[in-house]
Amino acid sequence: MSLQLNERAGRLVDRASASAPELRIEVHAVAGARVLDCGIRAAGGIQAGLVLARVCLADLADVSLVPGQLGGDSWPHVQVVTDHPVAACMASQYAGWQISVGKYFAMGSGPMRAAAGREELFDRISHRESPVVAVGVLETRKIPNEDVVNMVCEKTRVMPAGLSLLVAPTASLAGGVQIVARSVETALHKLHEVGFDIARVVSAHGTAPLPPVAKDDLTAIGRTNDAVLYGGRVTLYLRGDDASIDDVGPKVPSCSSPAHGAPFVEIFERAGRDFYKIDPHLFSPAEITFSNLETGRSIRFGRVESAVLQKSFA
Fold this sequence. Notes:
Blueprint: H1 5-18, H2 20-23, E1 26-30, E2 33-37, H3 46-56, E3 62-70, E4 73-82, H4 85-93, E5 97-101, E6 104-109, H5 112-116, H6 121-125, E7 134-139, H7 146-156, E8 163-168, H8 173-180, H9 183-193, E9 201-209, H10 217-231, E10 233-238, H11 243-248, H12 264-270, E11 287-292, E12 298-302, H13 306-313
Parallel strand pairs: 2-8, 7-8, 10-11
Antiparallel strand pairs: 1-2, 3-4, 4-9, 5-6, 6-7, 9-10, 11-12
């Protein structure tokens, strides 16, 4: 994988910083690093959310807001299109880094993960980076402090001047957009977890409905999860045999989990508010279509659950 993910994302962050007033974001210096507030104190918005999502994907995907439907009514959807799905989604976008320093906590995404190379996943996809710049997105309600900056710099082996962190809470317009832009990523991660060779996937398209901004982060976590679990539609363009697709297909959509069927907040409460007690097979799109570029065959698994979405978004 020759793509330099942090460099690509860094150029996008440079452009976003130069357009801060138009994006309604604020740029701060923290311990020598650059921090872009996209929805904590700053207003942020849809465009800031699209930037967040593109940064998470190392600028290797087109992310846009497109018309869609929810229960027969018009509803905006977040669309992701990429010709580099493994690099964009697994090496960069996947929220695989829990940033925990003292009382500070955030879920970390973006290509800084490839610079840190902390996760076993990077052994499997054979991609780590030693960049001059590192870029990450934090899902949090707090601006990172000096201790957080120092820790991330230590793990990524970059100087503070080379670090850029973009932050937004879940219960914000920008934060909601970037989380719902994970339809393709959740499909690939699920495939990876069930043992499918994700290197076979060469292009991908995904959509999921953008939920209303919630009044608090817990409700927002529920709505953004539901958007993908019950409304996410993904098409994967891949190569290889059809038999393995038939075998793995039923295991991929969220309906393959016994936890499927209730809004995520209800599932979370039943699990005692412990994410690790929730069946991990739940975390995948509602519907996935495999389109085989070699055989010309297309097959779909799963289903959208509009009733659950309407209950969640109400």
